[in-house]
Write a structure and sequence with these properties.
The complex is a heterodimer of chains A (388) and B (235).
Chain A (H helix, E strand, L loop, with lengths): L1 H12 L1 H38 L5 E4 L7 H8 L4 E7 L6 E6 L6 E8 L17 E4 L1 H7 L6 E10 L2 E14 L9 E4 L1 H12 L12 E6 L5 H10 L4 E2 L2 H43 L1 H10 L3 H37 L15 H27 L3 H5 L3
Parallel strand pairs in A: 4-8, 5-7
Antiparallel strand pairs in A: 1-9, 1-10, 2-9, 3-4, 3-6, 5-8, 6-7
Chain B lengths: L5 E12 L2 E12 L4 E5 L6 H8 L7 E7 L2 E2 H7 L2 H11 E4 L11 H12 L4 H11 L14 H14 L4 E5 L7 H18 L2 E6 L2 H6 L3 E4 L6 E4 L6
Parallel strand pairs in B: 2-10, 3-8, 3-9, 6-7, 7-8
Antiparallel strand pairs in B: 1-2, 1-4, 4-5
The chains are: A alpha+beta (388), B alpha/beta (235).
Family (chain B): Belongs to the ABC transporter superfamily.
Pfam families (chain B): ABC_tran
Keywords (chain B): ATP-binding, Nucleotide-binding
Chain lengths: 388, 235
Protein backbone atom coordinates (compact mmCIF):
# COMPACT_ATOMS: atom_id res chain seq x y z
CA UNK A 1 0.00 0.00 0.00
CA UNK A 2 1.55 3.23 -1.21
CA UNK A 3 0.35 5.43 1.65
CA UNK A 4 1.75 2.97 4.20
CA UNK A 5 5.14 2.83 2.46
CA UNK A 6 5.36 6.61 2.28
CA UNK A 7 4.24 7.03 5.90
CA UNK A 8 6.91 4.64 7.15
CA UNK A 9 9.59 6.08 4.88
CA UNK A 10 8.86 9.47 6.42
CA UNK A 11 9.02 8.04 9.95
CA UNK A 12 12.33 6.33 9.20
CA UNK A 13 13.85 9.59 8.02
CA UNK A 14 13.20 11.20 11.39
CA UNK A 15 14.05 8.48 13.92
CA UNK A 16 14.61 10.93 16.76
CA UNK A 17 11.25 12.64 16.24
CA UNK A 18 9.53 9.26 15.87
CA UNK A 19 11.16 7.94 19.03
CA UNK A 20 10.21 11.07 20.98
CA UNK A 21 6.60 10.76 19.83
CA UNK A 22 6.48 7.09 20.81
CA UNK A 23 8.05 7.86 24.20
CA UNK A 24 5.57 10.66 24.82
CA UNK A 25 2.66 8.34 24.09
CA UNK A 26 4.17 5.55 26.18
CA UNK A 27 4.39 8.01 29.08
CA UNK A 28 0.62 8.51 28.82
CA UNK A 29 -0.24 4.86 28.20
CA UNK A 30 1.99 3.20 30.84
CA UNK A 31 0.23 4.64 33.94
CA UNK A 32 -3.17 3.80 32.44
CA UNK A 33 -2.17 0.19 31.83
CA UNK A 34 -0.65 -0.04 35.32
CA UNK A 35 -3.85 1.37 36.78
CA UNK A 36 -5.92 -1.13 34.80
CA UNK A 37 -3.60 -3.89 36.01
CA UNK A 38 -3.97 -2.78 39.63
CA UNK A 39 -7.74 -2.66 39.31
CA UNK A 40 -7.78 -6.12 37.76
CA UNK A 41 -5.38 -7.43 40.40
CA UNK A 42 -7.21 -6.03 43.42
CA UNK A 43 -10.68 -7.03 42.28
CA UNK A 44 -9.62 -10.38 40.87
CA UNK A 45 -7.69 -11.17 44.06
CA UNK A 46 -10.66 -10.44 46.26
CA UNK A 47 -12.94 -12.34 43.92
CA UNK A 48 -10.61 -15.31 44.00
CA UNK A 49 -10.63 -15.21 47.80
CA UNK A 50 -14.38 -15.30 47.83
CA UNK A 51 -14.73 -17.73 44.94
CA UNK A 52 -12.15 -20.12 46.37
CA UNK A 53 -14.70 -21.37 48.85
CA UNK A 54 -18.09 -22.48 47.51
CA UNK A 55 -19.47 -21.61 50.92
CA UNK A 56 -19.21 -17.96 49.88
CA UNK A 57 -22.10 -18.61 47.55
CA UNK A 58 -24.12 -20.36 50.25
CA UNK A 59 -27.38 -18.89 51.51
CA UNK A 60 -29.02 -20.44 54.55
CA UNK A 61 -32.29 -19.75 56.30
CA UNK A 62 -32.00 -18.71 59.94
CA UNK A 63 -35.51 -19.60 61.07
CA UNK A 64 -37.62 -22.66 60.47
CA UNK A 65 -40.00 -22.38 57.56
CA UNK A 66 -42.68 -24.43 55.84
CA UNK A 67 -41.74 -24.64 52.18
CA UNK A 68 -43.59 -26.79 49.69
CA UNK A 69 -42.36 -28.49 46.53
CA UNK A 70 -43.69 -25.69 44.30
CA UNK A 71 -41.57 -23.16 46.18
CA UNK A 72 -38.47 -25.29 45.64
CA UNK A 73 -39.29 -25.81 41.98
CA UNK A 74 -39.71 -22.07 41.41
CA UNK A 75 -36.44 -21.21 43.15
CA UNK A 76 -34.54 -24.02 41.43
CA UNK A 77 -35.71 -22.70 38.06
CA UNK A 78 -34.17 -19.27 38.62
CA UNK A 79 -30.96 -18.60 36.67
CA UNK A 80 -29.20 -17.40 39.81
CA UNK A 81 -29.70 -20.71 41.60
CA UNK A 82 -26.74 -23.08 41.47
CA UNK A 83 -27.78 -25.72 43.97
CA UNK A 84 -30.89 -26.20 46.10
CA UNK A 85 -31.98 -28.98 48.41
CA UNK A 86 -34.63 -29.06 51.17
CA UNK A 87 -33.47 -29.51 54.73
CA UNK A 88 -35.11 -30.39 57.99
CA UNK A 89 -35.55 -28.42 61.16
CA UNK A 90 -32.27 -26.83 62.19
CA UNK A 91 -32.10 -28.01 65.81
CA UNK A 92 -33.28 -31.55 65.21
CA UNK A 93 -30.73 -32.43 62.57
CA UNK A 94 -28.12 -33.93 64.87
CA UNK A 95 -27.16 -37.39 66.01
CA UNK A 96 -24.37 -39.42 67.60
CA UNK A 97 -21.98 -41.15 65.28
CA UNK A 98 -19.53 -43.94 65.84
CA UNK A 99 -17.53 -46.31 63.72
CA UNK A 100 -19.14 -49.73 63.78
CA UNK A 101 -15.73 -51.32 64.15
CA UNK A 102 -14.77 -49.03 67.05
CA UNK A 103 -17.86 -48.59 69.23
CA UNK A 104 -17.70 -46.16 72.16
CA UNK A 105 -15.84 -43.41 70.39
CA UNK A 106 -18.71 -41.07 69.63
CA UNK A 107 -19.09 -37.67 68.03
CA UNK A 108 -22.20 -35.53 67.75
CA UNK A 109 -22.73 -34.70 64.12
CA UNK A 110 -25.06 -32.44 62.17
CA UNK A 111 -27.03 -34.03 59.37
CA UNK A 112 -26.76 -32.01 56.19
CA UNK A 113 -28.89 -32.87 53.17
CA UNK A 114 -27.06 -33.30 49.91
CA UNK A 115 -28.00 -34.02 46.30
CA UNK A 116 -26.30 -34.36 42.92
CA UNK A 117 -24.23 -31.30 42.05
CA UNK A 118 -23.53 -30.27 45.63
CA UNK A 119 -20.87 -27.53 45.32
CA UNK A 120 -19.42 -28.51 48.73
CA UNK A 121 -18.70 -32.00 47.44
CA UNK A 122 -17.14 -31.51 44.03
CA UNK A 123 -16.38 -34.75 42.23
CA UNK A 124 -18.03 -36.90 44.90
CA UNK A 125 -20.95 -39.10 43.96
CA UNK A 126 -24.10 -38.41 45.95
CA UNK A 127 -24.74 -40.99 48.66
CA UNK A 128 -27.46 -43.64 48.38
CA UNK A 129 -30.24 -44.31 50.90
CA UNK A 130 -27.97 -45.81 53.55
CA UNK A 131 -24.83 -44.00 52.65
CA UNK A 132 -23.25 -40.78 53.91
CA UNK A 133 -20.27 -38.58 53.34
CA UNK A 134 -18.36 -37.42 56.40
CA UNK A 135 -16.85 -34.03 56.90
CA UNK A 136 -13.09 -34.08 57.28
CA UNK A 137 -13.34 -33.01 60.91
CA UNK A 138 -15.72 -35.88 61.85
CA UNK A 139 -13.69 -38.40 59.89
CA UNK A 140 -10.52 -37.34 61.69
CA UNK A 141 -12.15 -37.33 65.10
CA UNK A 142 -13.53 -40.86 64.67
CA UNK A 143 -10.70 -42.19 62.45
CA UNK A 144 -13.17 -43.13 59.78
CA UNK A 145 -12.20 -43.65 56.17
CA UNK A 146 -14.22 -44.02 53.01
CA UNK A 147 -15.89 -47.45 52.95
CA UNK A 148 -16.12 -47.78 56.73
CA UNK A 149 -19.38 -48.85 58.31
CA UNK A 150 -20.79 -46.40 60.83
CA UNK A 151 -23.75 -46.18 63.14
CA UNK A 152 -25.82 -43.04 63.64
CA UNK A 153 -27.74 -42.99 66.88
CA UNK A 154 -30.74 -40.72 67.44
CA UNK A 155 -32.23 -40.46 70.91
CA UNK A 156 -35.66 -39.11 71.79
CA UNK A 157 -37.37 -38.63 75.13
CA UNK A 158 -40.63 -40.41 75.70
CA UNK A 159 -42.07 -39.50 79.08
CA UNK A 160 -39.28 -40.18 81.52
CA UNK A 161 -37.63 -42.67 79.24
CA UNK A 162 -35.56 -42.61 76.09
CA UNK A 163 -35.94 -44.31 72.77
CA UNK A 164 -33.09 -44.87 70.38
CA UNK A 165 -33.01 -45.09 66.60
CA UNK A 166 -29.89 -46.78 65.26
CA UNK A 167 -29.10 -46.27 61.63
CA UNK A 168 -26.37 -48.45 60.16
CA UNK A 169 -24.75 -46.59 57.33
CA UNK A 170 -21.74 -46.72 55.06
CA UNK A 171 -19.22 -43.93 54.54
CA UNK A 172 -18.75 -43.47 50.81
CA UNK A 173 -16.35 -40.53 50.94
CA UNK A 174 -14.76 -37.87 53.08
CA UNK A 175 -15.67 -34.29 52.18
CA UNK A 176 -12.91 -31.76 51.37
CA UNK A 177 -11.57 -29.92 54.39
CA UNK A 178 -13.15 -26.60 53.48
CA UNK A 179 -16.58 -28.01 52.74
CA UNK A 180 -17.85 -27.76 56.30
CA UNK A 181 -15.86 -26.86 59.40
CA UNK A 182 -17.82 -28.81 62.00
CA UNK A 183 -18.52 -32.51 62.56
CA UNK A 184 -21.29 -33.47 60.16
CA UNK A 185 -22.51 -36.00 57.67
CA UNK A 186 -23.87 -35.27 54.21
CA UNK A 187 -26.84 -37.55 53.69
CA UNK A 188 -29.78 -37.92 51.31
CA UNK A 189 -32.71 -35.66 52.32
CA UNK A 190 -34.78 -38.72 53.12
CA UNK A 191 -32.42 -39.64 55.94
CA UNK A 192 -32.86 -36.25 57.56
CA UNK A 193 -36.65 -36.54 57.25
CA UNK A 194 -36.56 -40.00 58.84
CA UNK A 195 -34.57 -38.66 61.79
CA UNK A 196 -36.97 -35.77 62.20
CA UNK A 197 -39.99 -38.07 61.97
CA UNK A 198 -38.48 -40.26 64.66
CA UNK A 199 -37.87 -37.26 66.90
CA UNK A 200 -41.39 -36.01 66.27
CA UNK A 201 -42.81 -39.52 66.77
CA UNK A 202 -44.40 -39.23 63.40
CA UNK A 203 -44.94 -42.00 60.91
CA UNK A 204 -44.23 -41.33 57.27
CA UNK A 205 -47.61 -41.50 55.59
CA UNK A 206 -46.71 -40.68 52.01
CA UNK A 207 -48.39 -37.27 52.05
CA UNK A 208 -46.56 -34.26 50.68
CA UNK A 209 -44.11 -32.84 53.22
CA UNK A 210 -43.09 -29.30 53.76
CA UNK A 211 -39.46 -28.55 54.38
CA UNK A 212 -38.36 -26.42 57.30
CA UNK A 213 -35.41 -24.98 55.43
CA UNK A 214 -33.01 -25.29 52.54
CA UNK A 215 -29.44 -25.46 51.50
CA UNK A 216 -29.01 -22.93 48.68
CA UNK A 217 -25.94 -21.96 46.66
CA UNK A 218 -25.97 -19.14 44.14
CA UNK A 219 -24.57 -19.93 40.71
CA UNK A 220 -22.11 -17.02 40.78
CA UNK A 221 -20.84 -14.63 43.42
CA UNK A 222 -22.75 -11.84 41.76
CA UNK A 223 -25.99 -13.81 42.18
CA UNK A 224 -25.80 -13.96 45.97
CA UNK A 225 -27.20 -10.47 46.65
CA UNK A 226 -29.98 -11.06 44.12
CA UNK A 227 -31.13 -14.28 45.77
CA UNK A 228 -30.85 -12.81 49.26
CA UNK A 229 -33.01 -9.88 48.18
CA UNK A 230 -35.50 -12.24 46.56
CA UNK A 231 -35.83 -14.33 49.73
CA UNK A 232 -36.03 -11.24 51.87
CA UNK A 233 -38.91 -10.03 49.74
CA UNK A 234 -40.68 -13.30 50.64
CA UNK A 235 -40.10 -12.66 54.33
CA UNK A 236 -37.33 -15.23 54.62
CA UNK A 237 -34.40 -14.14 56.73
CA UNK A 238 -31.10 -15.58 55.58
CA UNK A 239 -27.48 -15.85 56.49
CA UNK A 240 -24.95 -15.35 53.72
CA UNK A 241 -21.89 -13.40 52.66
CA UNK A 242 -24.02 -11.13 50.54
CA UNK A 243 -22.58 -8.08 52.25
CA UNK A 244 -19.02 -9.17 51.39
CA UNK A 245 -20.03 -9.88 47.82
CA UNK A 246 -21.93 -6.60 47.54
CA UNK A 247 -18.93 -4.76 48.96
CA UNK A 248 -16.65 -6.43 46.40
CA UNK A 249 -19.01 -5.64 43.56
CA UNK A 250 -19.24 -2.04 44.78
CA UNK A 251 -15.45 -1.86 44.94
CA UNK A 252 -15.25 -3.23 41.41
CA UNK A 253 -17.80 -0.67 40.20
CA UNK A 254 -16.05 2.19 41.99
CA UNK A 255 -12.62 1.19 40.74
CA UNK A 256 -14.01 0.78 37.23
CA UNK A 257 -15.64 4.22 37.40
CA UNK A 258 -12.46 5.76 38.79
CA UNK A 259 -10.42 4.07 36.11
CA UNK A 260 -12.84 5.27 33.44
CA UNK A 261 -12.47 8.87 34.62
CA UNK A 262 -8.68 8.66 34.73
CA UNK A 263 -8.59 6.82 31.40
CA UNK A 264 -10.81 9.49 29.84
CA UNK A 265 -8.50 12.23 31.05
CA UNK A 266 -5.49 10.25 29.85
CA UNK A 267 -7.11 9.49 26.49
CA UNK A 268 -7.95 13.16 26.04
CA UNK A 269 -4.33 14.04 26.71
CA UNK A 270 -3.25 11.27 24.36
CA UNK A 271 -5.50 12.50 21.55
CA UNK A 272 -4.52 16.13 22.02
CA UNK A 273 -0.82 15.28 22.30
CA UNK A 274 -0.75 12.99 19.31
CA UNK A 275 -3.11 15.19 17.34
CA UNK A 276 -0.97 18.27 17.83
CA UNK A 277 2.20 16.33 16.99
CA UNK A 278 0.67 15.03 13.76
CA UNK A 279 -0.80 18.44 12.93
CA UNK A 280 2.62 20.03 13.42
CA UNK A 281 4.21 17.29 11.36
CA UNK A 282 1.77 17.83 8.48
CA UNK A 283 2.26 21.61 8.70
CA UNK A 284 6.02 21.14 8.62
CA UNK A 285 5.78 18.82 5.64
CA UNK A 286 3.06 20.67 3.81
CA UNK A 287 5.34 21.44 0.89
CA UNK A 288 6.38 17.81 0.59
CA UNK A 289 2.73 16.73 0.67
CA UNK A 290 1.99 19.35 -2.01
CA UNK A 291 4.85 17.96 -4.07
CA UNK A 292 3.40 14.44 -3.73
CA UNK A 293 0.03 15.79 -4.80
CA UNK A 294 1.71 17.50 -7.77
CA UNK A 295 3.33 14.19 -8.71
CA UNK A 296 -0.14 12.71 -8.86
CA UNK A 297 -0.85 11.16 -5.47
CA UNK A 298 -4.57 10.80 -4.85
CA UNK A 299 -6.17 12.72 -2.02
CA UNK A 300 -6.99 9.54 -0.09
CA UNK A 301 -3.36 8.44 -0.19
CA UNK A 302 -2.29 11.77 1.29
CA UNK A 303 -4.99 11.56 3.96
CA UNK A 304 -3.85 8.09 4.98
CA UNK A 305 -0.22 9.11 5.52
CA UNK A 306 -0.75 10.91 8.89
CA UNK A 307 -3.30 8.27 9.89
CA UNK A 308 -0.80 5.43 9.36
CA UNK A 309 1.77 7.45 11.23
CA UNK A 310 -0.65 8.01 14.10
CA UNK A 311 -1.39 4.28 14.23
CA UNK A 312 2.34 3.51 14.18
CA UNK A 313 2.93 5.91 17.06
CA UNK A 314 -0.01 4.37 18.94
CA UNK A 315 1.18 0.79 18.50
CA UNK A 316 4.75 1.73 19.35
CA UNK A 317 3.53 3.69 22.38
CA UNK A 318 1.30 0.80 23.46
CA UNK A 319 4.11 -1.75 23.23
CA UNK A 320 6.56 0.49 25.07
CA UNK A 321 3.90 1.65 27.53
CA UNK A 322 2.92 -1.95 28.28
CA UNK A 323 6.55 -2.90 28.78
CA UNK A 324 7.01 -0.01 31.22
CA UNK A 325 3.76 -0.88 32.99
CA UNK A 326 4.75 -4.56 33.30
CA UNK A 327 8.09 -3.55 34.80
CA UNK A 328 6.32 -1.20 37.21
CA UNK A 329 3.74 -3.88 38.06
CA UNK A 330 6.50 -6.37 38.85
CA UNK A 331 8.10 -3.80 41.12
CA UNK A 332 4.78 -3.19 42.86
CA UNK A 333 4.15 -6.91 43.23
CA UNK A 334 7.66 -7.56 44.51
CA UNK A 335 7.58 -4.80 47.06
CA UNK A 336 3.89 -5.38 47.91
CA UNK A 337 3.65 -1.64 48.14
CA UNK A 338 -0.06 -1.68 48.77
CA UNK A 339 -0.11 -4.64 51.11
CA UNK A 340 -0.70 -7.41 48.63
CA UNK A 341 -1.61 -10.82 49.97
CA UNK A 342 1.08 -13.45 50.07
CA UNK A 343 1.63 -15.13 46.72
CA UNK A 344 -0.88 -13.01 44.86
CA UNK A 345 -0.10 -10.37 42.26
CA UNK A 346 -1.49 -7.02 43.22
CA UNK A 347 -1.12 -5.71 39.69
CA UNK A 348 -1.96 -8.03 36.84
CA UNK A 349 -1.12 -7.02 33.27
CA UNK A 350 -1.86 -9.63 30.70
CA UNK A 351 -2.65 -9.97 27.03
CA UNK A 352 -6.12 -8.53 27.66
CA UNK A 353 -4.73 -5.27 29.04
CA UNK A 354 -2.20 -5.03 26.19
CA UNK A 355 -4.81 -5.76 23.52
CA UNK A 356 -7.18 -3.25 25.07
CA UNK A 357 -4.42 -0.64 25.20
CA UNK A 358 -3.55 -1.24 21.55
CA UNK A 359 -7.17 -1.04 20.42
CA UNK A 360 -7.94 2.08 22.44
CA UNK A 361 -4.67 3.75 21.48
CA UNK A 362 -5.21 2.95 17.79
CA UNK A 363 -8.76 4.27 17.90
CA UNK A 364 -7.56 7.40 19.69
CA UNK A 365 -4.73 7.72 17.18
CA UNK A 366 -7.15 7.65 14.25
CA UNK A 367 -9.25 10.32 15.96
CA UNK A 368 -6.13 12.34 16.71
CA UNK A 369 -4.92 12.02 13.12
CA UNK A 370 -8.23 13.16 11.66
CA UNK A 371 -7.41 16.86 11.85
CA UNK A 372 -3.93 16.32 10.45
CA UNK A 373 -5.40 14.17 7.68
CA UNK A 374 -7.88 16.90 6.85
CA UNK A 375 -4.99 19.32 6.60
CA UNK A 376 -3.02 16.90 4.43
CA UNK A 377 -6.03 16.54 2.13
CA UNK A 378 -5.88 20.25 1.46
CA UNK A 379 -2.31 20.10 0.13
CA UNK A 380 -2.17 22.35 -2.93
CA UNK A 381 -0.19 20.98 -5.87
CA UNK A 382 0.75 24.54 -6.85
CA UNK A 383 2.71 24.81 -3.56
CA UNK A 384 4.66 21.78 -4.68
CA UNK A 385 5.93 23.61 -7.74
CA UNK A 386 7.56 26.33 -5.67
CA UNK A 387 10.87 25.57 -4.04
CA UNK A 388 11.54 27.58 -0.90
CA UNK B 1 -1.39 11.04 -34.97
CA UNK B 2 -0.03 11.57 -31.45
CA UNK B 3 -1.94 14.05 -29.30
CA UNK B 4 -0.04 17.17 -28.28
CA UNK B 5 1.24 16.84 -24.70
CA UNK B 6 -0.23 20.26 -23.98
CA UNK B 7 -2.72 22.53 -25.77
CA UNK B 8 -3.93 25.82 -24.32
CA UNK B 9 -6.32 28.20 -26.06
CA UNK B 10 -8.10 31.21 -24.64
CA UNK B 11 -6.88 30.54 -21.14
CA UNK B 12 -7.04 33.28 -18.53
CA UNK B 13 -5.57 32.81 -15.08
CA UNK B 14 -5.45 35.35 -12.30
CA UNK B 15 -3.06 35.22 -9.41
CA UNK B 16 -3.71 37.21 -6.27
CA UNK B 17 -0.98 38.04 -3.82
CA UNK B 18 -1.65 40.41 -0.96
CA UNK B 19 -4.02 43.05 -2.35
CA UNK B 20 -2.66 42.90 -5.89
CA UNK B 21 -3.88 40.72 -8.72
CA UNK B 22 -2.03 39.63 -11.82
CA UNK B 23 -3.77 38.24 -14.85
CA UNK B 24 -2.24 36.10 -17.60
CA UNK B 25 -3.98 35.53 -20.90
CA UNK B 26 -2.76 32.69 -23.10
CA UNK B 27 -4.23 33.02 -26.56
CA UNK B 28 -2.76 29.78 -27.86
CA UNK B 29 0.07 27.51 -26.84
CA UNK B 30 0.63 24.07 -28.26
CA UNK B 31 3.53 21.86 -27.26
CA UNK B 32 4.12 18.94 -29.58
CA UNK B 33 6.16 15.87 -28.59
CA UNK B 34 9.84 16.77 -28.23
CA UNK B 35 9.23 20.55 -28.23
CA UNK B 36 11.58 22.57 -26.03
CA UNK B 37 9.98 25.84 -24.97
CA UNK B 38 11.42 28.33 -22.51
CA UNK B 39 9.20 31.03 -21.03
CA UNK B 40 11.55 33.77 -19.98
CA UNK B 41 11.17 37.02 -18.15
CA UNK B 42 11.74 38.72 -14.86
CA UNK B 43 9.80 37.97 -11.68
CA UNK B 44 6.15 38.99 -11.88
CA UNK B 45 5.76 38.52 -15.60
CA UNK B 46 3.53 35.45 -15.33
CA UNK B 47 5.99 32.58 -15.73
CA UNK B 48 4.83 30.87 -12.54
CA UNK B 49 1.17 31.42 -13.38
CA UNK B 50 1.68 29.84 -16.78
CA UNK B 51 3.53 26.91 -15.26
CA UNK B 52 0.82 26.42 -12.59
CA UNK B 53 -1.92 26.29 -15.21
CA UNK B 54 0.09 24.03 -17.51
CA UNK B 55 0.90 21.72 -14.59
CA UNK B 56 -2.80 21.42 -13.76
CA UNK B 57 -1.96 22.82 -10.34
CA UNK B 58 -4.06 25.98 -10.70
CA UNK B 59 -7.59 26.25 -12.00
CA UNK B 60 -7.81 28.82 -14.80
CA UNK B 61 -10.52 31.46 -14.64
CA UNK B 62 -11.38 30.77 -18.25
CA UNK B 63 -10.27 28.12 -20.73
CA UNK B 64 -11.54 27.60 -24.24
CA UNK B 65 -9.20 24.66 -24.50
CA UNK B 66 -6.93 23.02 -21.93
CA UNK B 67 -5.85 19.61 -23.10
CA UNK B 68 -3.22 17.19 -21.88
CA UNK B 69 -2.41 14.42 -24.36
CA UNK B 70 -5.89 14.73 -25.82
CA UNK B 71 -7.71 14.73 -22.45
CA UNK B 72 -9.96 17.69 -21.75
CA UNK B 73 -8.46 18.97 -18.51
CA UNK B 74 -10.72 22.04 -18.52
CA UNK B 75 -13.72 19.74 -18.17
CA UNK B 76 -12.04 17.96 -15.25
CA UNK B 77 -11.44 21.32 -13.57
CA UNK B 78 -15.06 22.33 -14.05
CA UNK B 79 -16.20 19.00 -12.54
CA UNK B 80 -13.81 19.47 -9.62
CA UNK B 81 -12.29 16.09 -10.46
CA UNK B 82 -9.04 16.74 -8.63
CA UNK B 83 -8.03 13.09 -8.38
CA UNK B 84 -8.54 12.71 -12.13
CA UNK B 85 -6.31 15.75 -12.66
CA UNK B 86 -3.77 14.15 -10.31
CA UNK B 87 -3.93 11.03 -12.48
CA UNK B 88 -3.21 13.10 -15.60
CA UNK B 89 -0.25 14.73 -13.87
CA UNK B 90 1.06 11.35 -12.75
CA UNK B 91 0.83 9.76 -16.20
CA UNK B 92 1.93 12.62 -18.46
CA UNK B 93 4.04 15.12 -16.49
CA UNK B 94 7.47 15.18 -14.97
CA UNK B 95 8.89 18.00 -12.85
CA UNK B 96 12.26 19.62 -12.33
CA UNK B 97 12.09 22.37 -9.74
CA UNK B 98 14.47 25.04 -8.47
CA UNK B 99 16.34 22.83 -6.00
CA UNK B 100 15.17 19.56 -7.43
CA UNK B 101 11.83 19.20 -5.71
CA UNK B 102 12.64 15.68 -4.59
CA UNK B 103 10.62 14.00 -1.86
CA UNK B 104 13.02 14.39 1.07
CA UNK B 105 12.24 11.12 2.84
CA UNK B 106 12.78 8.93 -0.22
CA UNK B 107 16.08 7.97 -1.78
CA UNK B 108 16.90 9.15 -5.28
CA UNK B 109 15.94 5.75 -6.63
CA UNK B 110 12.71 5.67 -4.62
CA UNK B 111 11.78 9.16 -5.87
CA UNK B 112 12.10 7.99 -9.47
CA UNK B 113 10.39 4.67 -8.71
CA UNK B 114 7.48 6.55 -7.11
CA UNK B 115 7.00 8.54 -10.33
CA UNK B 116 6.96 5.26 -12.26
CA UNK B 117 4.51 3.70 -9.78
CA UNK B 118 2.16 6.66 -9.94
CA UNK B 119 2.22 6.57 -13.73
CA UNK B 120 1.70 2.81 -13.74
CA UNK B 121 4.95 2.31 -15.66
CA UNK B 122 7.27 0.44 -13.32
CA UNK B 123 10.52 -0.14 -15.22
CA UNK B 124 13.63 -0.56 -13.03
CA UNK B 125 15.82 -1.22 -16.07
CA UNK B 126 14.89 2.08 -17.70
CA UNK B 127 15.40 3.87 -14.39
CA UNK B 128 18.88 2.42 -13.95
CA UNK B 129 19.89 3.15 -17.55
CA UNK B 130 18.66 6.73 -17.32
CA UNK B 131 20.51 7.21 -14.04
CA UNK B 132 23.71 5.99 -15.71
CA UNK B 133 23.22 8.42 -18.61
CA UNK B 134 22.75 11.24 -16.10
CA UNK B 135 25.89 10.19 -14.24
CA UNK B 136 24.12 9.41 -10.97
CA UNK B 137 23.96 5.62 -11.17
CA UNK B 138 25.89 5.39 -7.91
CA UNK B 139 23.60 7.82 -6.11
CA UNK B 140 20.31 5.94 -6.31
CA UNK B 141 20.43 4.85 -2.67
CA UNK B 142 21.30 8.32 -1.39
CA UNK B 143 18.84 10.64 0.31
CA UNK B 144 18.33 14.01 -1.43
CA UNK B 145 19.70 15.93 1.56
CA UNK B 146 23.09 14.27 1.09
CA UNK B 147 23.47 15.42 -2.53
CA UNK B 148 25.08 18.54 -3.92
CA UNK B 149 22.83 21.00 -5.77
CA UNK B 150 24.09 19.76 -9.12
CA UNK B 151 23.54 16.12 -8.18
CA UNK B 152 20.09 16.98 -6.94
CA UNK B 153 19.14 18.57 -10.27
CA UNK B 154 20.35 15.48 -12.13
CA UNK B 155 18.29 13.38 -9.73
CA UNK B 156 15.31 15.63 -10.46
CA UNK B 157 15.78 15.09 -14.20
CA UNK B 158 15.93 11.36 -13.51
CA UNK B 159 12.64 11.48 -11.63
CA UNK B 160 11.07 13.76 -14.24
CA UNK B 161 11.84 11.35 -17.09
CA UNK B 162 11.78 7.97 -15.32
CA UNK B 163 8.13 7.28 -16.14
CA UNK B 164 8.44 8.42 -19.81
CA UNK B 165 6.16 11.44 -19.50
CA UNK B 166 4.91 13.44 -22.45
CA UNK B 167 5.83 16.76 -20.88
CA UNK B 168 8.45 17.96 -18.41
CA UNK B 169 7.67 21.14 -16.50
CA UNK B 170 10.79 22.85 -15.23
CA UNK B 171 10.55 25.84 -12.92
CA UNK B 172 13.84 27.75 -12.62
CA UNK B 173 15.87 24.52 -12.48
CA UNK B 174 19.15 26.42 -12.71
CA UNK B 175 18.42 29.29 -10.35
CA UNK B 176 20.37 27.69 -7.51
CA UNK B 177 23.40 26.43 -9.41
CA UNK B 178 26.59 28.02 -10.64
CA UNK B 179 26.22 29.54 -14.16
CA UNK B 180 28.64 26.96 -15.57
CA UNK B 181 26.58 24.21 -14.04
CA UNK B 182 23.36 25.86 -15.30
CA UNK B 183 24.32 25.34 -18.92
CA UNK B 184 25.18 21.71 -18.20
CA UNK B 185 21.89 21.07 -16.42
CA UNK B 186 19.80 22.62 -19.18
CA UNK B 187 21.75 20.80 -21.87
CA UNK B 188 21.28 17.53 -20.02
CA UNK B 189 17.56 18.17 -19.58
CA UNK B 190 17.13 19.03 -23.25
CA UNK B 191 19.16 16.05 -24.42
CA UNK B 192 17.44 13.50 -22.23
CA UNK B 193 13.99 14.89 -23.00
CA UNK B 194 14.74 14.78 -26.71
CA UNK B 195 15.89 11.17 -26.40
CA UNK B 196 12.70 10.33 -24.50
CA UNK B 197 10.52 12.22 -26.96
CA UNK B 198 9.19 14.41 -24.18
CA UNK B 199 8.31 18.08 -24.57
CA UNK B 200 9.75 20.52 -22.02
CA UNK B 201 8.14 23.72 -20.79
CA UNK B 202 10.81 25.67 -18.96
CA UNK B 203 10.32 28.81 -16.89
CA UNK B 204 13.60 30.65 -16.41
CA UNK B 205 15.26 34.01 -15.88
CA UNK B 206 18.25 32.79 -17.84
CA UNK B 207 17.22 33.27 -21.46
CA UNK B 208 20.73 32.92 -22.95
CA UNK B 209 21.30 29.57 -21.21
CA UNK B 210 17.91 28.33 -22.42
CA UNK B 211 18.59 29.40 -25.98
CA UNK B 212 22.01 27.81 -25.82
CA UNK B 213 20.43 24.53 -24.80
CA UNK B 214 18.14 24.62 -27.83
CA UNK B 215 14.96 25.94 -26.22
CA UNK B 216 12.56 28.12 -28.21
CA UNK B 217 12.13 31.26 -26.16
CA UNK B 218 8.82 32.91 -25.32
CA UNK B 219 9.66 36.17 -23.53
CA UNK B 220 7.16 37.71 -21.13
CA UNK B 221 7.31 41.44 -20.54
CA UNK B 222 7.54 42.90 -17.02
CA UNK B 223 5.75 45.84 -15.49
CA UNK B 224 2.10 45.16 -16.29
CA UNK B 225 -0.73 43.85 -14.16
CA UNK B 226 -1.50 41.50 -16.99
CA UNK B 227 0.41 39.64 -19.65
CA UNK B 228 -0.57 38.12 -22.95
CA UNK B 229 0.96 35.10 -24.62
CA UNK B 230 0.15 35.63 -28.28
CA UNK B 231 -0.88 32.84 -30.56
CA UNK B 232 2.31 33.06 -32.54
CA UNK B 233 4.10 31.61 -29.56
CA UNK B 234 3.19 28.09 -30.64
CA UNK B 235 6.11 25.75 -30.58
Amino acid sequence: MRSLRLAFADLRREPAFTLCSVLALAAVIAPLILLAGLRAGVVAGLKEDLAASPRTREIANIQNLALDAAWFAALAARPETGFLVPRTRLLSATGSLEATARPGRVATVEILPTAPGDPLLPGIAPPGDTQVILTASAAQRLSISAGDAIRLRIIRRVGDGREVLNLDLTTTAIAPAGAFDRDAIFAPPALGRRVQDFLDDRTADGTARRAEGFRLHAKRLEDVPTLVALLQAQGIETRSRADDVAALLALDRNLTAGFAVIATVGATGFILGLGSALWASVSRKRRTLSLLRLMGLRRLTLVLIPIWQGIAYAIGGSILGTAIAIAAAQAVNRLALLGAAEGRDLARIGLDEFTLACLLATTAAILAAAAAAQRAAGADPAEGLRDE
Amino acid sequence: MTDAPLRLEGVVATRRAGGAAFSLTIEALRLDPGALVAVTGASGTGKSTLLDVAALARRPDEAMRLEVCGTDAAALWSRGAKDALAGLRARHFGYVLQTGGLVPFLTVGANAALAQDLAGRRDPGHLAALAERLGIGALLARMPATLSVGQRQRAAILRALAHRPALVLADEPTASVHPDMAATILALLAEQARQAGAAVLLATHDAPAARAAGFVEIPLQPGAASARLPALAEA
